[in-house]
Fold these 2 entries.
Entry 1:
Amino acid sequence: MPKIATREAYGEALAELGEEIKDIVVLDADLSKSTKTSVFAKKFPERFFNMGIAEQNLMGTAAGLATCGKIPFASTFAIFATGRAFEQVRNSICYPNLNVKITATHAGITVGEDGATHQSIEDIALMRALPNMTVISPADAVETKQAVRAAAMLKGPVYLRLGRHPVETIYGENYKFEVGKAVILKEGKDVALIATGVMIAEALKAAEQLSKDGIDAMVINIHTIKPIDEEVILKAAECGSIVTAEEHTIIGGLGSAVAEVLMEKKPVPMKRVGIRDVFARSGKPEELMRVYGLTAEDIEEAAKSLRR
Amino acid sequence: MAITKEKVEELSEIARRIRRHIIEMTAEAGSGHPGGSLSCTDILVTLYFHVMKVDPKNPNWPERDRFVLSKGHAAPALYAVLAEKGYFPTEELKTLRKIDSMLQGHPDMKNTPGVDMTTGSLGQGLSSANGMAIAGKLDGKDYRVYVLLGDGELEEGQVWEAAMAAAHYKLDNLTAFVDHNGLQIDGPITQVMSPEIIQEKFRAFGWHVIDVDGHDFEEIAGAIEEAKNIKGRPTVIVAKTVKGKGVPYMENQVDWHGKAPSREQAEEALKSLI
C-alpha cells in the first residue's frame, strides 16, 4: 500500500466537497500549501480566504461566516489552531456552538525536523475539554476523506486532527466511517490495543508480534475521541487489560479519555503509550517515534508488562 | 437618511429610557458594567431605532443588518435596546445575570433573541463581524454589519489582525464604532496602555475614519450615512463619549466601570434620567 499523508487526503476531499456543498468556505493562515487547502483554493478561489499569519482572527472570522449559514473549514497547523487561538475557539466557536470545522494538520511529533515549537502534542486534550466540540483523529487517507465529509454534514464545531507525514493505508475503499463509532480492526481476547491516528499502524504491527508469542490482541481504532465510543471500550475491557497508543501527551488525550470510561464503568489494568510529559525535539519522524516511545515495540512491551 | 429634529427628540427619549433600564438592571443584578453601557447608549439607539434594517419578530431574518457588541460587557445597554425594540418584553431585563435568565452577563446569541454574536472576551468581535461581512459579499446581499469596540479593547492584538483583514478584503459593508470614553478598569487608557492615536492607527490600516461626538444623534447618524457611501474600504467611527453618561456621579469615574449601583445610588441616578 502506498503511504499517503492525511493532509493530502484532506485537500482532495475538500475540493470534492466544495463542488457538492456550495456553503463550504475555506480559511487558512498562510499555510495553504502545507495544509493542502490550496487544492480547494485553486478550484474555488472566490470561496477561499487567506487570513495571513493571524490565527486568532482566522477563528473569529470563521465564526462570523458560520453565523450566516456558511460551513467554514479553518485550517492551519495544529499547534496554532488549538494553542494560539484556543480562547477564540472556545468563546467564539464552541460556546455559541457554531458550525466551524477546525481542520488542523501537522499534529504530533511526526512534524519532525521543525522541532518542539511546531509539534502539537496537547491538542486533543485542549479540544476535547471544550463543550460542543467533536474531536476526530483519522488513521489514514481513506478515513480522512470520509471524516472530512462527515464533519461537513455534522452540525456544530469539529476538530479534525491530521498529520504531515505519509502514513500507511489501513482501510479499503469500502470502509464506512461513522462519527463516534470506533472500529474493531482485529478481534482478540488477551489484551486490547486501543489507538488513534498514526498509532493505528503501530498497534496492528504490535498485535502481529504479540500473536507470535501466543498473545491474542484485540485492536481498536478510536477515530472519534469525543464523543468517545464507550460501548467498544467496555467490550475491550473484557480482555482484562488495555493499552492505549497515541501520538500525543499521555495527559488528557486518548489514554485519559479511555481511562475515564474504565474508571467509572469497568476498571481494568491499563497502560498509556504516548509522549511522557516532555517536549520533543527535531529529528526524522521515524527517529522521533522511536526516541519518544511510540513504536509497535513500545505497544508490545506495554501489553506484555500488563500480563506479568 | 438625514435625521429630522423630531427623530432626534424621539431618539433622546428612547436613550433616556435605555439609561434608566441600565441603572435598574445592574442595581437589581447587583453586578455588571454601567459605565461603559451608558457611554455607548446613544450609538446603539441610533443604530437600532434609526439605521438598522431588522425585524424583532424575525430575529434571524437572513437579510437583516447585523450588530456585534465586541465590548460585550456593555450587555445591559444592548439588552435594554433589544427589549425596547420589541425582541422580548422589558420585564425580562430585571432577570439580568440571574440563574435561569436568558440575559447572560455577556451576550449569548443562543439564548437571547436579537443577539447576532456571542461576545464578552474582548478583542474577538471585529473578527466575527468581518466573517459576516464576507458572507454578505459572497451571497450578494446588501445587509450591513455594525460592530462596537471599546477603546481599551483596542489593546487586544486580535483587533488589529481583524482591522488588517477588513481592509484587505475591502469590507465596505462593515462599519465599526469605537466607544472612546477614555477609561478602562485600571484607569485612563492613556495611562494603562495607550491605544492612541486611534484614528491614525485605523487610517494606517487602510480604513476610512470619521470622528463624532458619541452623544450627538445627528453626528452619529451622519457618520453612518457617510460610511454607507465609502466604497472599497471599511469605515470606523471614533465616537468621543463620556463613561457613565447621564448619571452625574458616574460620569468620567473609572470606579463605575464594573460596579453596580446600590438601591439608594440607583434611586439617585434615576432622578437624573427624568
Entry 2:
Amino acid sequence: MKNKRALFAVPYVVWMAIIVVIPILIMAVYSITTEEGQLTTENFTGMGLYLSVFTRSFWLAIIATVISLLIGYPVAYWMSKEGPGFQRVAMALIMLPMWINFLLRTYAWMSILENNGLLNQLFQVLGIIKLYNAVTGQNIEYFQMIRTPGAVVLGMVYNYISFMILPIYSVLSKLDHSLVEAAQDLGADSFEVFRRVILPLSLPGVLSGVTMVFVPAVSTFAISRLLGGGTEMMLGDLIENQFLGGAYNPHLGAAISMVMMVIVLVCMVVMNHFGEGEEQAVML
Amino acid sequence: MPKELIQLRDCVMQYGDDVILDHINLYINDKEFLTLLGPSGCGKTTTLRIIGGFLSPTSGDVLFDGTRINDVPPYKRMVNTVFQRYALFPHLNVFENVAFGLRMGETVIGEGNARYKKKIPESEIQKRVLEMLEVVNLKGFEKRSITALSGGQQQRVAIARALVNRPKVLLLDEPLGALDMRLRKDMQIELKRIQQEMEITFIYVTHDQEEALAMSDTVVVMDGGKIQQIGTPEDIYNEPKNAFVADFIGESNIIDGIMRADGVVEIFNRKFQCLDKGFGKDEPVDVVIRPEDIDIVAEDQGQLKGTVTSVTFKGVHYDTIVDFYGFKWLIQTTDFCPEGSRIGIKIDPDGFHVMKKSKYSGMFGDYSSYSEEYDEINDPTLLDQAEEEGTDDEE
C-alpha cells in the first residue's frame, strides 16, 4: 500500500458504500422492475402524470434559491466587512436556529402563519385587516398565508438560507483586500470594484451556496406538507407517498427519485461548468 | 529648478497613541526616482499609502501639482501603485489585468478641479495594452492566466497594469521583495530604464539599501516615523547625518569622538586630520569610518594598532574584524591578515566623517557582536517579514 494512512479512510469508505452506493443501486433496480420482479420501463413512461409536480418542485426551489441568494449575498458581504467581534456574533446568530430541530422550526412557522396565527392576530390588532377590507371593499377575516406556495418558499428560504450565507461569507472574508485596493487604484469606484473584482471572485461561494440551497429545497417534503398543507404537492411528498403513503408503489417512487437525482446532477454539472475553473466550488 | 509634483506638508499619522508618521515634510519633484528607505515600521509604506489615497493623514496636507488632494479617493488620483504582492486579479488573464485601468476610463480634471472619467475607445485600449506588454517584455503573453506566470512575470504584469494608465506618478511598494537575488538585480535595471523611458515620477519603497542606492535620484531615509535624511545616494552614503543613517546605509564603524578644532577629530585619545568643519570646540561627536576607507599597514607604521580577531573571505575582499583597544572595527581589504596577527591602520582625512550626536549615538557601528549581526543580515526570513504598518483604509 502506497500510503498506510489510507487505512484510516476505510471505515468511512465502507460506510459510504453501505448507506449511499448500495441503496442507490437498490433503487435503480426497483425503478426498472415491477412488483412481480419483471423488467419494465412503465415506471418511467407513466411519470408524465406527475409533470406538474416536477415543475412545481423545481419552480419553487428555484424561487427559494434566488431569494436566498438575494438576501444571503448582501448579508455575507456585510459580515465580511465588519470586525471580527461582529463576525462572531453574526455567525452565532446564523448558526443558532440550526441547532433547533428542523421540524420544530417549521412547526413554529405554522403557528405564525396560520389563519388565526400570530401574524394574523397582529394584523388584527394593528387594524391592517380592517384597513385592507376598507380599501379593497372585501370582507376577509384573515390573510391566507399558510397553505400557499409563498409559505412553502418562505419555509425553504428560512431553513436553508444559512447554507447560502456561509459559503459566500467564507469566500468573501478570505478575499485579498489588496485586490480591492488595486482596483480602486486603477480607477474603479465602489460599484466597479464590486462588479469587476468582488463579485467574480466570490462566484465559487455563490455556486456552492446555490447548490446547497437548491438541492434540499427541490426534494423537501416536510416543508411543503406542513406549510403547503398538502395543497402544494412537491416531489418529496410524491416520493414519500409512494413509499410510506396511501399510493404505495415503491417502484414508481424509486423511478421518480432516480429522475430527480439525474435532473439535479445535470443542473449542478451545468452550473459548475458555468463557473469554470473555480474548482473550490463545492459539489454536493 | 524642477517642478515639485507632490508635497507632503507636516503630515501626521496617528492611531490612538501610536504615532506612525511624525510631522513629515516631503517634496517630490516631477520625473524623479525617489526612494523611501527604512526598516520595518518606519512609516515608509504609510507615506506611500497616503500618496496613493488609501490612507488619509491625521493632520497635514497632501498636495498634487499644487492642489490639495487629501479628500480625493484613490480611483480619482493620477497615481498608480505596484503592490507588494502584485495584487493581480486572478480571474482575469494578462491582457485583461493590464486593460483594467483603461476600461475604467481616464481621469480628467475639468473646471473647478472637478474630476470625472472619460471612456477610452476599445481600439485604443487594445493598442495601449499591447504596447505596454512590449515595454515590460511580455509580448505574446496576453492570453495567459495570471496563475501560470512566474514571480518575475507577475511582477512585470503588475508594472504594466499600473503604467498603462500613464500616471503622473508610479508608487512601488517593495515590488521586488518576493523575487530572488538575480531577478531582483535584473528588475532594478529594468525599472530604472522604464522610468527614464516613460519620464514619470517613481516613488519606491524598500528596506534594501543597495536597491535604494542603485536606482534612486533621491533617497529618503526614514526611521520611527521621521525622515532622518534626504539626499542623493552619494550624499546619503558619504555624508550620513546620524548614526542611524550611517549604519543603515552600508557598513560603518561608528566611534565616539571629540572635535578638537576644525579639521581635527580625536578618537581613542589620538588626534586625526579630517575634512569636517563647523563643530563647536571640544564638542562630542560620532565619527563614521567606512570599512573600505581603512588601509592596513605594518604595525609600526599604523596610526592605530590592533589585533585581528576574525577574517571572512567575501570574494572581492576580506571582511577583517580588528580589535582596537577593546572596540571592534570592520575593515574591508584585499590584503589577507591571519587571525591573531597584530596590524596597524591608516585612514586618510577624507575617510573620516564626523556627525553630531543624536539619539542614535552608541546604538550602532560596533562590530563586537559581528557574527550575530551578520547572521541577521543574511537571514532572509528576517528581511521578508512584511511590515504591518497602517491598517486597512477607512471607507
